[in-house]
Write the structure tokens for this entry.
Amino acid sequence: MKYDFDTPVSRYGTDAAKYASLTGAPGELLPLWVADMDFQAPPEVLRALHARVDHGIYGYGDLTDEDYFRPIHDWYARRFGWETQREWLVETPGVVFAVYNAVRALTQPGDGVLTLEPVYYPFARAIRDNERMPVVSQLVYENGRYSVDFADFERKITEDGVKLFILCSPHNPVGRVWTKEELTRMGEICLAHGVKVVADEIHADFIRPGFQHTVFASICPEFADNTVTCTAPSKTFNLAGLQNSNIFISNEVICDTFKREVGRTGYGGLNIMAVAACKAAYTYGEDWLEQLKAYLEENLDFVRAYLKEHVPEIKLVEPEGSYLLWLDCTALHMDAKALDGFLYCKAGLWLDDGPLFGAGGEGFQRINMACPRKTLAEAMERLKRAVASL
């Protein structure tokens, strides 16, 4: 490989959220929870950031030209067949920030907002914090795979006053890459009942061989006209700490409403380091990403084989996308609190507890495999020893 994903890079003492809350000696507790990677960003991004630092002037930024939009446009056109326009783009400091603002912009207090659980837990916070009503359609888990109960999906919309659907595509944490047919059915139900859609597509670049990500808004003009699409380079290139997301809204009324809501927060635009990193990543980062995906595929093969041979009590929910793995631990017969404590105290693993993700999460854990193989092997060995001790 041209790029090195095997050599561990210490993140202790770097103010990294993934490590900052640890107590005890380094390595005593292995953190594989939050969704950032233990890999350095592409060298081309590092060079762009160094050049910006070396310039030495860090005044206000102003994205008035095409050099920011064009690499993003070309990336999505080339990789997903999705043609965007500059006037659709609203830059925000993160997808969660965008979701919070979209909830306020597109609904009123008391309105129902629908999610498919288990799902990325900030969605529920965005709904509750803004005094909207959470409405849940639970995913169906059968034969190791998740699917949408479309009858329940539509029933919840009609019975609970749903005005907005927050779509996670690809789905975090269960790893589904929704088919075009599944997305079309969701979109048609939403259109039929006047429900707008916020599509979080932040994991779109991590699709496994044999699967294909469909941008929800690209399916038809009617879907595009009803959708806020949330994208970011943060997961793809490990840039979350630079706080940069790119939100696309083709409906002019919705776009203006969203911009006004963002304006009420006092937010004044991207920081200049985020701009430099985003441009470099989408311009030069494709080769790095493809090699990273190949490495992650090997990590997945390692985890699958290891669990099957050494920890058969824990089942891997086979992912179709993302570098986040969803582990079925129900055969351990522990309630959620006991399972979390067991993994934390006995195995020395800091994972994401399934109930965080809502309905259907009990008995599951989310683990981040975007780390050097050595780190992943240590995690699996700890898991084996802990389960063997039961």
Q: What stands out?
A: The chain has a mean pLDDT of 96.
